[in-house]
Amino acid sequence: MRIRTLELGVGAFMLAGLLALAVLVVNISGLSLSAPTQSYTLYALFENAGGLTVRSKVAMSGVTIGQVTAIEIDQEALMARVEMKINSDVDYLSYDSSAAILTAGLLGEKYIGITVGGDEEMLTEGDYIDDTQSSLVLEELIGKFLFNKVNEE
What SS3 string covers 22-87? Predict the structure, then answer.
């Protein structure tokens, strides 16, 4: 009887561990089990969208206000066109707002940070954010530093 109780306890513990792992995977992947909120679509063109992925967060002042839904090459501008779904309650993004690809921590995940401008006209469905700052690529930065050091000598 004691062995059966021990086996049931171990089984329950393993089941709880697997359930916790499943919740962790869903949270990390950016998937949501809740109903989708109302949103509108904005676009931004970046010279380099390196490290940015679909379902990356879009944040303003550290608060998530949307997510990236698509990344593709714009055929006319030959730049990365990022499509973002912004929560509909965030209706105060002005036309002179800027978007930058940022990194959480030193080598963390990439996300888009939006800074609101001072224009009185607001962005609406399908508009483009014109002022963008591309992703910082660590390898390029190191290469420029080393190239400058070699030229100094």
Answer: HHHHHHHHCCCCCCCCCEEEEEEEECCCCCCCCCCEEEECCEEEEEEEEEEEECCCCEEEEEEEEE
pLDDT of 35 higher than 80: no
Q: Are strands 110-115 and 98-103 parallel, antiparallel or unpaired?
A: antiparallel
CA distance 94 to 131: 12
Angle ∠(44,136,55) on CA atoms, nearest 5: 50
Handedness of CA 150, 141, 48, 92 (dihedral sign): negative
Q: Are the C-beta atoms of residues 35 and 54 closer than 8 Å to each other?
A: no
* φ and ψ at residue 150, rounded to 5 degrees: -65, -40
State whether residue 145 is helix, strand or coil. Answer: helix
Work out the percent of the chain whose per-residue pLDDT is above 70: 90
Q: How many CB atoms lie within 10 A of CB 66?
A: 22
**pLDDT digit string, tens, across residues 138-149:** 777 788 777 776
**pLDDT band (50, 70, 90) for residue 104:** confident
